[in-house]
C-alpha cells in the first residue's frame, strides 16, 4: 500500500480521497476547513497541518482545489516538503499556461507534475467512475495509474503537461454553452405555451439533446433546486480558461465568449454559488417564465 | 386502406411516403422533380400532376417541403382539389405564425390543418422511428394517428395549431447552437494538440456530450464528408424561425441569434447545400485546423 | 402653393407637418389620436376623417408612422382616395422588402411611392434640419423635392425604391450598436471608480466617441430622464429590420444580431416606451451601478 | 531644463520623444531597434544602451511600449538604474491589475509610477495634441505635468494608480466595437446597392456617426490602404484588457466579448499587423463586397 497525500476535500476531492482510503492506502490529508478532515480521519485518513507536511508523508500528492492561483500557492507550499521523484497529480481545472508554469516550478525540485482534471460530478467522484484526462510524462502517468483507477473509470493520457487540461477545457466549454442554450430553448418553449415536461421528454429523445439537458432539467430546474453540485463560479472559471486558451491558440470562440458573459450575468445576479443549472434564472426572471414541473 | 396524398419527396418525404405505401395505403404523389416519383410509383404509389390532383384523390394529405412560402403556395394549390373534412398534415419545419396563417387559409375551405414537424433525420424517416410533434385539433390528430404511427415512433399532440412547431423549433434551436459549439470545442482542442479521436471519445462519454456531437463528428466531420442529410440552409431556416419566435414571445435569445449569424457565415462561404455539420468548416479554414480522423 | 397630405403626427410627423403648413401649403391631416390634429388645425392645417379623405385632397401624401404593417394598412386605405399621378412619400423607417411591396401596391393604382426615411430626431424635425434618404423614381423625387427641402437639410436620392431604406437601416444599425456599446463602457468605467462626468468629457473628445454618446449621455443618462425622443421599441424595430436585410443580402451581422437581443432585453424589462438611451438600464441594474451626474 | 528618459520609440513614442527634445529637455533614449534612435539622436536626443542606463540619466522616465509583459520587463530593468524619488510615466495601454502590480514593484525602490495611457493616434502624438489619462499620486502627476503638456493637450488626473488605465480601456473598448460595427453597416449597405461614398456622407452627418467612422472609412477603407497607424494586434490587446477588467469588476460585456473575438478573427486571417480598420476585411471577403471609393 502506498503513501499518498490529498489536499482539497471539497465537493469532489472528499469522495476521491475516501475512495483511496477505502482501497487501503495511507492517505495524508490537508484542507482549509477541518470538518471534512475529521470525517475522513475517522475513516482512516491522517491529518496534516500544512501542505508541506502532506508532501513529507506522501510520494504521490493529489490536489483538487479551485482557481489556478490557489493551486499554484498550495503546491508551492507543498514543494517545501517534497522529495525529488515525487509526483504531484492535480485534479483541479486550471489553465493550459498555468499547468505548464506549475510543472516548471515542480521540475525545479525534481517533482513531476501531472495535470489530471476530471469530469463526472460529485456522483462520479463518489462512485469512482470519473473520467480523468491526464497530461505529463508517460512514465509518471503509469506510476500513478493504479490510484487513478480507484478514482475513475475512463482514464486518458493525452500528451505532455497541459494536454489533460486542454481536453477538460474543451469539455467544459461545451458544458457552459449547452447550459446557456437549454435556457433559451426551454424558456422559449414554455413561454410559447408548450408543457416543459413534454418538451423535455421530446428533446431528450431527439437531435437537440445534450448531457446538460439530461442533468440540469430534471435534477435542478424542474424541482427549482439549485444547490450546487457544480457551481456557476466554477463553470465561469472554466469557460473563461477555455476562451483564454482560444486567445493563446488564436481560435475565434464566439459562442464561448458569449457564454462567459452569460455566466458573468448569473454571477452579477447573485447566483455564483448556485449550481450551474441556475444559468437559466436570469432569463426566467427577464421573461417572467418559470420552467418548473 | 385509406386514400392518402404526399407532396414533397425530398430527403425526408420520400421515406415517409414509401412507408405509407408499404403499409398498404393508396398514396397519390406529387413532386417538383420526377425521378423520385418514378421510383415510388414503381413501388405502388400513384402519380399526380398537380397538388390539386393529389388533394382530389386523398382524404389526408401529407407535405414535407422546404420554406414556409413553399408550403403555403403548395397548400393553396392543393386546397383547390380538397373537400371539406379533409385533413392536411405538414411535416415541414415552418414558423409559428406561418402555421397559424396556413391553418386559417385551410379552415376557410373546411380543411383541418395539423402542423406536424419531425425529428430524426433521413435515417429515422427510413426506419419509421421519427419523433413527430403535432399541433391542431385533437380529433383531427386522432384521425391521422394511424398514419403517423407508420411514419414515426414518438408521437406527440402538444396543443392547438402551432404547438408542434414550437417544440420543433426549440429542438432545432438547440441543434444549431450545439453544432456551432462543437466546432469551437473540437477546433480548439485539435489546434492545442489533442488527438481529435480521443477528444471525441472523452467528450462523447462526458458532461459536454450532445446528440449533435454523436451525429456530426463521426459521420461527417472525421471522414470529411459533408453530403447533406440535413442541410445548412434548412438549419439556417429553422434557427431563424426560432429566433423570430423569440421576437414574437419577447424572449432574449443571445446564443440563438449568434448561431443564426454563424449559419449565415457558412452560407456566405458557399456551404448552404452541405450538411449542417459543415458549420465547422469556416472555423477550420480560419484557424488552419482540420478535425479529421 | 400645393395640396399636400400628412398622416402620422407623432413625435416626428407633427413637426414636419407644421413646417409644411408654415411654408404656406394646404396640408390635409389625419391621425389616430386627435389632440395633435386639433393643434395643427389651429395653425392652418385641415382635418380629414380617414386616410382616403386625405388622399382625395392631396397630390402628394406624406406619412410618418410606426411599423411596416401600419404603413401598409394606412396606405392601402389612402389608395382608395388617390388619383393616378399622385406621389406617396413615406418617412417611417420600414424594411427593404416592405418598401418594394408597398411600391408595387401603389403602382397598381398609378401612384408613385418614395421611401424617404429620416434621421435627426424630433429636434431636427422641428428645426427642419433632417437628413432625408430617398429611394424611388428620380422624376418623382424631383417633383417632391421642394417639400422635402422644407422638412430637412440634407436630402439624398440614393436609387430605386428601397435605396433610402437601406441607408437608413445602416445608420440605425449603428445607432443601436453604439447605444449598447456606450452602456458597457460607461458602466464599466463607473464601476471601476472613474467619475462618469470626466469619463464623458474624455471619451467625447477622443477616438471612442460617437453621436450616440453625445446624445444619450448628457441628455438622458446623466439626468436619469428617459422620456422617449426615439423609443426603444422603434430602435428595436429598426435594428431587427437591418438584421433582416442582412439575411436577405447574406451578410453576417454578429454585433447587429446581438444588439437586437439587447433591445429585446430592454423591452422585456419594461422599457420599450422609454428613450433608446434606456438600453443602459438593464446593465445598470445587473451591476448595481448608476451612471448619473 | 530637465533630465528625461524615453523608452519605446514606436509609432507613438517617437513623436512624443521628439516633442520633448524640441522643447529643450535632455532626453535619454532607448529602443530595441536602433534606426529611430539614430534619427532622434541627430535631433538632440542621447542614446543609452539599456533601460537601466536611461534610468540613471533621467529623473522622469517615459515609456511607450506594447504589452503589459514588455512594460513590466523593461521597467524592472530600468529600476536597476533608478533613484528613490524618480517618477516612471507609462504611456502604453496595459491592464488595470498590471498597472497596480508595476506600481508596487516601483514603490519597493522608492519610484513613483503613473499610468498615463494616451489617445489620439500618431497624428496626435506628432502634433502634441494627445489626450493623456493619468492615474497615480497627485503630487507626482503635478511634477510631471509640464512634460505631459508638451506631449498632449487634454490632460486628466483621474485618481490612484490604474485610474488612467480604466478610462483608456473604456475608450478603446468603444473603438473596437465601433470599428467592428462600421464593418457590418458599410458592407451591408454596399452589398444592398448603395454607393458607399454617399453612405459615408450621410452617416457621418447623422445619428450613426462615430469617431471610428470618420477615421477608418476615408483614410483606410476607401483607399484600401491598411498600413498600421494603430494595429489590429494593439486593439485586440486593449479590448481583451477591457473585457478582462469587466471580469474583475463583474460587469457583463457582451459586445466587448464579441468584438474581442472579431479581432481574433482578423488576426487569424493574417491581419494583426495591419491597421485596425482592417477589421472590415474578413467580412468583405466573406460577402464578396469591397467598400472602396
Ligand atoms: N433532413 C432532415 O434531417 C430533416 C428535415 N426536416 C424538415 O423537413 C423538411 C424537408 O426537409 P428535406 O427532406 O431534408 O429537404 P429536401 O431539400 O431534401 O426536400 C425538399 C422537398 O421540397 C420540394 N420543394 C422545394 N422547393 C419547392 C418548390 N419551390 N416547389 C415545389 N416543391 C419544392 C423538393 O422538390 P424537389 O425534389 O423537386 O427538389 C423536395 O421534394 C424541411 O422543412 C426540413 O426543415 C425536419 C427534420 C429532419
Ligand atoms: N423619433 C425619432 O427620433 C425618429 C423616428 N423615426 C421613425 O419615424 C417613424 C415615426 O416615429 P415617431 O414619430 O418617433 O413615432 P411615434 O410613436 O411618436 O408616432 C407614431 C405615429 O404613428 C401613428 N400610429 C401608430 N400606430 C398606428 C396605427 N395602428 N394606426 C394608425 N396610426 C398609428 C401614431 O398615432 P397616434 O398619435 O394616434 O399614436 C403616431 O401618429 C418611425 O418609423 C420611426 O422609426 C425616424 C427617425 C428619428
Ligand atoms: N498607435 C496608436 O494609434 C496608439 C497606440 N497606443 C498604445 O501605445 C503603445 C505603443 O503603440 P505603438 O507606438 O502604436 O506601437 P508600435 O508597435 O509602433 O511600437 C512599440 C514599441 O515597443 C517596443 N517593443 C515592443 N516589444 C518589445 C520588446 N519585447 N522589448 C523591447 N521593446 C519592445 C518597440 O520596439 P521596436 O521599435 O524595436 O519594435 C517599439 O518601440 C501601445 O500600448 C498602444 O496600445 C495608444 C494610443 C494610440
TrEMBL record, chains A, B, C, D:
Chain ranges of the 3-hydroxyisobutyrate dehydrogenase-like NAD-binding domain: 162-283
Keywords (A to Z) from UniProt: NAD, Oxidoreductase
Residue ranges constituting the 6-phosphogluconate dehydrogenase NADP-binding domain according to the UniProt record: 4-159
InterPro entries per the UniProt record, alphabetical: 3-OH-isobutyrate_DH-rel_CS, 6-PGluconate_DH-like_C_sf, 6PGD_dom2, 6PGDH_NADP-bd, HIBADH-like_NADP-bd, HIBADH-related, NAD(P)-bd_dom_sf
Family: Belongs to the HIBADH-related family.
Record-linked PANTHER family: 3-HYDROXYISOBUTYRATE DEHYDROGENASE-LIKE 1, MITOCHONDRIAL-RELATED (PTHR43060)
Name of the protein this chain belongs to: 3-hydroxyisobutyrate dehydrogenase-like beta-hydroxyacid dehydrogenase
Species per Swiss-Prot/TrEMBL record: Symbiobacterium terraclitae
